[in-house]
Amino acid sequence: MTNKEIVLKFYEEVFNNRDLTNIDRFMKENYIQHNPTAESGRAGFLGFAEKFLAMKPHMDIVHIAEDGDIVFVFFKCTLENGMINKVCDIYRMEDGMLAEHWDVIEHNVNDVKPVHGNGLF
User: Fold this and answer.
1) Helix/strand/coil (H, E, C) string of 56-117?
2) CB 60 within 8 A of CB 76
3) d(CA 121, CA 116)
4) Among positive and negative, which fits the CA dihedral 57, 63, 66, 72?
5) From CA 19, how far away is CA 62, in angstroms rounded?
6) What is the DSSP string of 21-68?
7) Contact 55, 80 (CB under 8 A)
8) Does residue 31 contact residue 41 with C-beta atoms inside 8 Å?
9) Which of 31, 62, 82, 106 could form an SS bridge with 86, CB 3.0 to 4.6 Å?
10) What is the pTM (predicted TM-score) of this model?
C-alpha cells in the first residue's frame, strides 16, 4: 500500500467509522503531534480521538497528495451538530505508519459567505 492509501484507510476506519481498535496498525507508538490540543504518542492521540469522535465527525476528503514520506489531506469535516470545519492535515509517514502530524483548521465555516463564487472546498 502507498502512504496515501494508508492515510485514506486510516480516515475511513478511524474517523468515519469511529473505530479505534486497530490504531496500532496505523500509528507509531511515538507519534509526534503538533496540534496544540492533543498530546504526542499513540496514547495521546487516543485521548484526543475519544473526545473528538464523540462529536460524530464525518470527513469528506476533497484532495489528498503524497510527496515522499509526506501526505497532505484536505477535507470537509462535518460534525453531528452541523458545524463544518475546513481542514488540511499533514502527516509524515515512517515504515508505513503515521509518525508525525500537523494541521490547519478553519472552524465553523457554515456561515462564511465568500466574496467570490468559487466555494470553500
Assistant:
1) CCEEEEEEEEEECCEEEEEEEEECCCCCEEEEEEEEEEECCEEEEEEEEEECCHHHCCCCCC
2) yes
3) 12
4) negative
5) 22
6) TTHHHHEEEEEEE--TTS-SHHHHHHHHHHHHHTT--EEEEEEEEEET
7) yes
8) yes
9) 106
10) 0.94
